[in-house]
Amino acid sequence: MAPSRQAKSSKTVRRVLTGLVACACLLAGLPSAKAQAPAKQPPAAPQATPQVAPQAAPQAVPGFWDPRRRPERPDLSRLTVIRFLTETDYPPFNYTGADGNPAGFNVDLARALCEEIKVTCTVQMRRFETLVDALSSNRGDAIIASMAVSPQLRVRVDFTDPYYRVPARFASRKDAVMPEIRPEYLEGKKVGVIAGSAHEAYLKAMFTDAELHPYPNDDAMRAALRKGEVDFIFGDAISLAFWINGTDSGDCCAFSGGPFVESRFFGEGIGIAVRKGNDVLRQALNWALFRVWEKGRYTDLWLRYFSVSPF
User: For the whole model, what pTM was predicted?
Assistant: First the structure.
């Protein structure tokens, strides 16, 4: 069974997360799922102040670590090398650099974790669908490849805590940006969405008075927004962030409202996979992830790779 990944349904996504505000961006502090602002994975998180329109907002760097829950430093003496596996072509998370070596957000994060743990680190690139088999057959120690945590994959591998999530967001034309979106605000509004997607299911469950317009793919949905055929589109915020900031959008559009992150619809987040039962490595990586975030290195990486924040 090939592993699934958030937002891997579109080829557009494949072509094209803390120290700034420690507590404000924590998972528990993100908005809740039903009003604007459905929160990140925990469905019952408290409501936070709505996000303002992106033109006026500073770059948002999410954090998924609670400074009040500092992990204890595990015994790292048994770790001498970590062989990371990643995929070949999922920019900006994974890609081949100009020098022919692995590059991208995931690769730089893996190297930062190894520096924190003080072990040798290697990164091997493979096709995404081969990664779990390679890990299971001991051709690597950990997978860092934007792999979505799922019940199906938990049967085969263990995961670290999430190091980022893939929120959903609304986008609108720039002359119609709304700083906050609630179900009642979209009554009678035309909303484009990918047919059969988790985003469509979420809108049907939570935005029952909106007029949904399903499209077969991202390109058709985004074109409808550019032409004014719909008032909003709703989809994977990472993909949308790159589209908004890229040439294909024609500078037409911007995010409206904040992130929607209900785990029942949008998954448990993105984690690092290790072999089943490898608690030594999993705990070491969890500790190192917290340290990298606490020192601000995670923030630096996020700002380097995401000029328009999905959050």
Answer: 0.75
